[in-house]
Amino acid sequence: MYRKLLFAIxxxxxxxxxxxxxxxxxxxxxxxxxxxSQRAENASDENPGTADAPWLTIERxxxxxxxSGDHLIIHDGVYRGGVNFVGLQGEAGxxxxxxxxxxxxxxxxxxxxxxxGDWQNCGKQEKVEEPYPNAYRRRWVSDCNFEQISQxxxxxxxxxxxxxxxxxxxDPNHLPPVGRGVEDMIRESFYHDPEAGRLYVDVHGGSAPTxxxxxxxxxxxxxxxxxxxxxxxxxxxxxxxxxxxxxxxxENLLVENVATLHAAEDGIQLRLSKxxxxxxxxxxxxxxxxxxxxxxxxxxxxxxEIFRNNYRRFHPYWHAGGSKNVKNIRCAFVxxxxxxxxxxxxxxxxxxxxxxISGNRLFHNEGNGVHYEISFGDTFIANNLIYxxxxxxxxxxxxxxxxxxxxxxxxxxxxxxxxxVPRRGCFPTxxxxxxxxxxxxxxxxxxxxxxxRQASQNRIYNNLFVRNRTVPGATNGTQAFxxxxxxxxxxxxxxxxxxxxxxxxxxxxxxxKGPLALEEWLEESNQDKHSRTCADLKYVLGPTGDxxxxxxxxxxxxxxxxxxxxxxxxxxxxxxxxEKSVYAGAQTF
Length: 589
Known about the structure:
Radius of gyration: 27 Å
Helix content: under 10%
Largest sheet: 16 strands, parallel
Structural class: mainly beta
Number of strands: 52
């Protein structure tokens, strides 16, 4: 009797829990599985796409009406050309899955064509006056009927330098040209003359190119998704398009374990989308930007690698670097690494709101580690390890409502800078894009008049500054710049920070008196009342990113700070910050 009663109670409880839950959330409906296998002997687009009779091309799969629960498996091979998936409609808990399945060489999608030229030696060039060194090497030329060439790849791993103005990005302020013509070619470069239909190359000091493999970028977007919902894309490598993976007007899209390498412009672009996740991906070595979000809502980038982007040297103050993001709401970069980019590591520019940048490692970027510009809060830049960036570790420019807290900033050009001349955003919102202003209410909330963005109501708390502005032989330097209230800034606050002594007394700047020692800064600004300096602490090997402290017994009391921020309960490693173990910086000891 008691067993029957207990069973009835449990059954009733289960019915209550599942009442109103869609079937797709509780039970995965069976779907069809399709296969693409370039290496299978019997592969053909006339096949049904089964494991025993696979399709030959991914393009064939785009013509199939994939439905919720369907699974497209792409096997080993190099697949050339662009693929477009439009209107895929999965369901919550039962998505459409597109994935690579490799048993060896890998699944590679390329936006390039192999170019087999009929190479002719140009012979020695007559000496002319040119400003470029090595301008008179032996060059080789071949007839070439491509109308536009922005990228030539040698032997699948060497990206040749383009000479002359790019045919796609024709504004020299955006992409300054290197040289003007064939006379200005340097080692490992190419010059394309579309009017004459000729391609010139100089490889390895003028050696004959006949033994090399050349690829030319021909595809605008290698992997394209539009109006797709509840779709998973995983385990692919995408190379050499103008753009690698491009998604627009998508919802609940998961991009996982996808590498986008050496696109002529952007590796990954997510635009006008919501509730999307980019996770465990790589966006490396792309010509302009590694990864970008534009007008997205409630979307995240997690544990993604963003290295060595903007190799073509687009102007870093226009649209270039590791990650450039515009007009997003409630989006996040968490646990990512961004390094060695020609520009900023992570850059949010113009009308972003409620952004999280946390738990990232940002280093050796030519620009700033984090750049948050012409935007507003509530935004958190927290728990980041930021070191050896040429400009600022964190730059909050003409933005409001930003909390910069619990970051470790080591040997950057400047640790944290808040300021910037007030500037306009993009109001009114262009048709079809996200209105981040919520009908103007957010402007009122942050005290923004005439749609001007300015540095106001920003908080700089619990950060650890270590030898920023490290200039060999210098006797002083500025660790941080926090403006006092003036026509450009108001209601900003800074406190509970720790400034380590390096080769000089740590200095803070923000008043007309210029750089000040911490005690002088406190008297001048009434900020940093609980901040302090401490002796320089040694870490194992900073240049390699190993920031374990040598003497942990000395570190523990030096970095303890009496301030707990409930908004940031964990550190960069996910450790809980206990009531009695609050430290400045990203790590908890």
